[in-house]
Amino acid sequence: MKKIVSVLTFALLCAGTLSAQQRWDTGGIIIDPNAITAMDLFNYSNVSHNFGTARSMAMGGAVTSLGADMSSMSVNPAGMGMYLSNDVTFTPMIGVTKTITEGTKEFDGGSRHTRFSVADFGIVFKAYEGSRGVLAVNVGFGYNRLADFNYRTSFSRGDNASSLSGVFARQLADSRYTSYDLSAGENPNFSWWNIDPTYWGAALGYKCGLVDDPYGQWQPDAYGYNPSVDQFMTIDSRGSIGEYDFSGGLNINNKLYVGFTLGIQSLHQRRDIYYGEEYSYAQGDEPAGWQLDWFNYEQTSIVNGTGVNFKAGLTYRPIPALRIGVAVHTPTWYSLDFKYQGAMVSQIYDNAVGRYLIDPEASTDVLKDYGSNSWNFRTPARLLLGASYTFGNRAIISVDYERDWYNGIRTGRTPVGRGIYKDFFRENFKGANTLRIGAELKLGYAVSLRAGYGVTGSMLRNHKLIYSSPVTYRTQYCSAGLGFLLGRSFYIDLAYQYLTQKQTTAKLFYATDMVGESDGTWLDDYSGDYTTKLHRHNIVMTLGLRF
Question: For position 525, what pLDDT does the model report?
Fold first, then answer.
């Protein structure tokens, strides 16, 4: 059996409500949205430089040593010193994302998502121009997209023997709650705010007939006998990480270029998660009193955040044709705000009277956790190295290497403590390597042809482990583009980029017996394994003006 890694152990998520006899570790894509997990923090740290101007995207983002490009602000600010004039650019983007989940069928509109956005914009001014020593000082302000969270995943899988109700029963078995505590009709002191949000999903399951404790022990309820379970899943994600850069660069004798950037990052992600089960029963089986036909579970999580970082870089030209660049990025210190809501509805058939139940509790309230949910963390530090060579005025070859230390992700203030995150990143993550290659060929004075390639290797010590949610462990992309110089001042660049992301296998839900005992009833519960691959097509156009 494959090993399962729980990102946030159930004990920490439920601190203050669990007893010392906690038995079950639960998690998965459906269970975890009511908190920010370590996998979420990794996703918010996993930024790349494959976005930017059309020129930099067409050349695979290999601009660490090139300079004189708006992307230099967020890659190597030493490139700011290479500008010979003022410059203004704007880069809109069309992104089309397609997700493919192995062994499943699509439903509910499929898994394709199209989004219009902005990849980059900026302005650079010459603040100083000299004749010796410091030949130029340039300053600029710009925006660069660093991560894209826009995608849609939708799939179904039939005849799965496991149901989410089994995980709900195990969660409530570990809790201090009884059915009386969760019943508004019986308990005069009932309030959703008296229930830990960790258990909201399980409490909603009780309201909709999925679980009950008729003999003082929580168990699946209105199942009927021997049901076949069909699972349905949709994740709609919207959002991005963008960085606003305040940069300055110096040109020292056309030999050494020095630059600095203060970066302010803005993060937003909204995930709407739908999960449903339908049940079918074999003919001839004795019917149960109540028989669950289906249930739908909808959750929404929203994360907004602001981060700050600092970048410094150098580029050296030992000979006019060769440029060697190096840049250091400090971690980004983030403050995040988290919001969550969930609701459930089910349909139950009463075999005794031959009709569907009409029960107001079968459609639950919409539970909202909009309280104080502040999370602080820091992303990895980064080191970038690059070299480029210019063949006269005809061609350029550029190569970049980047090292990111993902095992250095750390948390500050969080609602669930910080120690487990630190240990998790140390034990499961490592440094990641990125290689980017770009080329440009000038076809005469006014037209340039460009191409690029980039690949980021795994930052996981073992990407074959099954984590509580999918983790992107390999990113690969190729790109091509054209540049047009229209007169002395105006230019247009075009680029197309095809990107694939491999993700680790994940489970929709699981419950693992941490005690290791089994009496034949309390067996581990798992959904099937799901592996998703993302395909992204990005088309960008940069409009630029030099003056």
Answer: 66
HEC secondary structure over 388-407? EEEECCCEEEEEEEEEEEHH
Residue 484, amino acid: F
Alpha-carbon distance of 307 to 455, in angstroms, equals 26
d(CA 179, CA 190) in angstroms, rounded, equals: 11
CA distance 542 to 56: 10
Residue pair 436/456 in contact by the 8 Å Cβ criterion: no
The tokens for 125 are 């001014």
Closest to 9 in 3D by CA, of 460, 504, 416: 416
The DSSP element (H or E) to which 434 belongs, if any, is: strand 431-442
Q: Which of 242, 235, 304 is nearest to 271 (CA)?
A: 235
Whole-angstrom distance, CA of residue 98 vs CA of residue 117: 17
DSSP of 86-117, one letter per residue?
-EEEEEEEEEEEEEEETT-B--TT-SEEEEEE
Q: Which two tokens stand for residue 410?
A: 């750390």
* Residues of the chain above pLDDT 70, percent: 86
Contact 404, 48 (CB under 8 A): no
φ, ψ (nearest 5 deg) of residue 18:
-90, 150
d(CA 304, CA 228): 40
Region of 115 please: left (phi>0), alpha (psi -120 to 50) or beta.
beta
Structure tokens belonging to residue 316: 């050296």
List the structure tokens of 407: 């095992």
10 Å Cβ neighbour count for 129? Answer: 12
CA nearest neighbour of 342 among 313, 323, 326, 365:
365
Secondary structure class of 515 (helix, strand, coil):
coil
DSSP 37: -
Q: Tokens 């750390």 — which residue?
A: 410
pLDDT value of residue 516: 61
C-alpha gyration radius of the chain: 27
N residues, the chain: 547
Q: Quickly list H helices, 465-538.
A: none
Encoded tokens for 61: 């983002």
Token pair of 164, please? 């989410």
Q: How confident is the model at residue 283, as a pLDDT?
A: 64
- Residue 501's CB is within 10 A of a number of other CB atoms, namely 21
- Lowest-confidence pick of 142-146, 281-285, 444-448, 537-541: 281-285
Strands 4-5, 466-467: parallel, antiparallel or unpaired by DSSP? parallel
C-alpha angle 545/148/201, rounded to 5°?
A: 155
CA 201, CA 205: separation in Å to the nearest integer?
Answer: 6
Asked if 298 contacts 274 with a C-beta cutoff of 8 angstroms, the reply is: yes
Task: Say how far apart CA 390 and CA 451 lie, in whole Å.
Answer: 15
Residue 296 pLDDT greater than 90, yes or no: yes
pLDDT at 210 over 60: yes
